[in-house]
Amino acid sequence: MMSWYERSCAMLLTLLSTLNLTNCTWSRHDSGSLVDVRQYVQNASFGFSSRWEILGPFQIGTREAAWGADPLELYGGFRNISFNPESTFLSSLPLDGVARWSTLEAEHVQSNAQSSRVDLVVSFPGVQWDFLRTVYGWAAVQFQGWARGHITVTGVAAQSFVLYTDSVLEFWVDNEHFFGGDFYGFRKAPPVLWLEPGRHRLDVRLVRDVRAFGGIGEPIMAITLQIDKASGYLELGSNGIQISDLVGNTLAASIASITVRNSGKEAFALRGIRTPNNSFNVLLLEKDAVVLPGQTRPVAFKVTGTGSNATEITVLLDYALVETNASLDSLMANQNLRRKNLYEPHKVTYLHPGGIVSYVMLRPPQQNVSCNTQKDLPVLFFMHGAGNEAESELVSRSFDPVTDICAWVLFPTGVTPWSADDWHNWGFADVEAAINTIETWKSAVSWQGPGVDLEKWFACGHSNGGQGTWYALTHRPDNVIAAAPVSGYLSIQTYVPYNQWRLTDPRLVSIIQASTNSYRHELLISNANGINIHQQHGSVDDNVPSYNSRSMHYLLQEVGGRSDYTELPGVNHYFDGIMTTPNLQVFYKQQLGVIAPKTEHLDKFTLTVANPGDTGSKQGFQILLLRDPGQLGRLDIELSGKDSSTSIFSHNVLRFSVTNRVTSRTMKIDGQSVRSGRDFGQKLYYILGSDGAWKTSIDAPDNLSERSIRQMGPLDAIMRTSDKFVVRYEDTSLGAIALQISRNLQQYYYADTIILRSFSEPNTIKRNSGNMFTVSIGSNLPPSSHVRFPIMVDSSGRLSILDSSGSERTFNSEKDLAAIFLRPRGHDALELVVWGSDIHYAGLAARLVPLQTGAGQPDFLILSRAAMWKGVGGVVAAGFFDHHWQVTQTAYFA
């Protein structure tokens, strides 16, 4: 810990450097040493090298890097390989089957007193890229390699920096490993580095991903690295305040947030917030929140008052050292306020289920259209494509040509420009939170216009948002009354195939693939039957090929559904007005006109579910439990109006419910007669007993030992949280991994985390209903809240699993193991355990904490050291848990 004197020196040095006050000298004699601040500031500098050493290319599959899959790990890792132009490494990509060293001069190197930046453009011309692309498709123009450069720091003492790593997933600074990076260039949570004067090696893993870099032309990879001087204390993580627009003189919502980062070496507690603005009052939503060294956290607060004359808002965040509780300082943030007309798109903030502040651009029903025949209007939401911000005019003004529709129009963010997880668990929860905030907005602005039907949605989107539209159609079919997916892809597997992954046991591959079933919309397309859909795609789209839309147009026909399909000749991926073409405008007015069309009621349909935890009902039928969670579940339903009967055939379903809107007199399930909802006039639950007979219940089953519906799904179910995340660890050596998890959740999801340095939970954490991460090594794993949980670690640190037969599977021959698996946290929340036989293998497990969609993590994974170069081929056990949290029969054991 720094002494008072050291802290004072550091603060003064930072201030002098910032103000460029180099004509003054301040010194102190302490134990015979003399510190000349002027000399320090004048001589202190830092910057990147312009010459970089490159090694590659090597094969990599779509979203495979999270598994390791780095062939250089077979040689001890790139960090242990010295530059040698004569060295060769076997590779499947270059012409002669070997990868070599080369050198590269940076495109640009820029430095000043506060920042240094380098831009690298890496290509490997010695590969037959066009031929490989012809044979294997876009997957073949993905590659991996490494780049080595240096950061040079001058001066007399260690300094605090933040390192931005745009388009990078993994890197090393000297001997410290960082996984997560900033692949999409969000720049939300850069790592904090304390660098001594001298030369620091920077090894950067290059992972080319078609979704980020494209599949057309020469496959190059452009990355940007930037290192900025930090304050060494609490500082703003990003400029400005996330706050609603003013509608007239009223904020459209009362929730706001700022982001702070601790670039120092001691923990800070946030004591309060205040504002010099007379127009507003502010109050922290969580007082005494702690920001650990290196951590970035969003800070939510409430804003009240009217802004009759306000053009900006300034807040002062008071903080103190946790250890001494002494008041230290205040951090200032300010934001210009935008004043918007009530009827134009404007920014409305709200709380995401994960406890962070998100926003939506909201456009209420317009004055120029009469919707008197409808009391409550549906919600049209537009999901943007990857890399777009909802408040940009490109997104928020995209429906300006369409004002004469009877609907509330929303432009949700999905939290990030990539919608975090492609509009799935985290991103779609944001859509639903945005819809639900309309009622709060109505009160805030004293709305006198039409009401809103929060249960009726018109879903539409472009590109990644087009894919999100298919997600809405297949996962919320009872809510979606119509949809317009534009230039969207079906699934990642269809977009960029997985054929370049390392080969492994087909049974293991089937488990990995099954863990992404809920995002294979083409497998769930039966749920969209009966919904009015208009697809649109450009015929020469080289970003998302039109094959995706053509294929779904055909598949809808196979399941008895239909869609209108417009293919625009000679049109690429995007153009201004793509969401308001003549055909789409006609469709909007048909579906959202003064007289709304009736929703089609199907007499025969199929409900298909991959994960009951993220899928709603269709015509009142909802699947709640699957026999095997690694296999699709299905209900084939036929309603007969003549005799008011319902016939259902189930496939891999253990439990489902039927709302009282289904009024059949008789019901048969798999040929067995059961009581119908008409007998009770309320929602009914149908449960398959161990004897093979279906039973009826008016009460939702509530067995505390069972997996609740919120706990269902593979590892990415951890993102369906109802509060802030908690990351806990006990061994001090694991602090860096806990911080990495926190940093990556903020970087990729803008999520907030509370980090605990103990497995004991204080009362404030026990009241937290969110999901938890537990990081542990060896025997130091706290017991599960489930008394019969099948994965155990004994007092000697040996890991074992009870398989479906009750036999104990131990891994005695594997001394070096990593494990990551879900456990229940109470009845409704989840815990994700990140475990290793030592700190190195805990780091291997932490790579598989969900960051990017499509990596394919089932409920549990046990990995050996070989995963570092074999990827999924290094897995020694994998599978799913059933509804009793027991390992299913389909689990894989090497």
> Count the strands?
54
What is the quaternary state of this protein?
Answer: single chain
Low-confidence stretches: 1-43
Helix share bin: 10-25%
Gyration radius, rounded: 28 Å
Structural class: alpha+beta
Counting DSSP H or I runs of 4 or more residues, the number of helices is 17
Shape: globular
Strand residues, percent: 25-35%
Structure characterization notes:
It is built from 17 helices and 54 strands. With 894 residues, it is of the alpha+beta class. Strands 3, 4, 5, 6, 9, 11, 12 and 14 form an eight-stranded antiparallel sheet that branches. The protein has an eight-stranded mixed sheet with strand order 27-28-30-29-31-32-33-34, sandwiched between helices. The chain is globular, with a radius of gyration of 28 Å.
Keywords:
disordered N terminus, single chain, alpha+beta, 17 helices, 35% strand, 8-stranded mixed β-sheet, globular, 54 strands, 8-stranded antiparallel β-sheet, 894 residues
Question: Brief description of this entry?
Answer:
This protein is α+β, with helices and mostly antiparallel strands and 894 residues long.
List the helices and strands and how they pair.
Layout: H1 4-19, E1 29-30, E2 33-34, H2 37-43, E3 46-48, E4 51-59, E5 88-90, E6 98-105, E7 108-111, E8 115-123, H3 129-136, E9 143-153, E10 159-166, E11 170-173, E12 176-179, E13 192-195, E14 198-207, H4 210-213, E15 220-229, E16 234-236, E17 246-247, E18 250-251, E19 255-262, E20 268-274, E21 281-284, E22 290-291, E23 296-304, E24 312-321, E25 327-336, E26 339-340, E27 346-351, E28 357-363, E29 376-383, H5 393-396, E30 408-412, H6 419-422, H7 425-436, H8 438-444, E31 451-462, H9 464-475, E32 480-486, H10 492-495, H11 506-514, E33 532-538, H12 547-558, E34 564-568, H13 582-591, E35 604-609, E36 621-626, E37 633-640, E38 645-651, E39 653-658, E40 666-669, E41 672-674, E42 684-688, E43 694-697, E44 725-729, H14 735-749, E45 753-756, H15 763-766, E46 772-777, E47 791-793, E48 799-802, E49 808-810, E50 817-825, E51 829-836, H16 839-846, E52 860-864, H17 867-870, E53 875-879, E54 892-893
Parallel strand pairs: 17-26, 29-30, 29-31, 31-32, 32-33, 33-34, 38-40, 44-45, 44-46, 46-51
Antiparallel strand pairs: 1-2, 3-9, 4-6, 4-9, 5-6, 7-8, 8-15, 9-14, 10-13, 10-15, 11-12, 11-14, 16-19, 17-18, 19-23, 20-22, 20-24, 21-23, 24-25, 27-28, 28-30, 35-37, 36-39, 37-38, 39-42, 40-41, 42-43, 47-48, 48-49, 50-51, 50-52, 52-53, 53-54
GO biological process, one term: proteolysis
GO molecular function: serine-type peptidase activity
Pfam family, one: Peptidase_S9
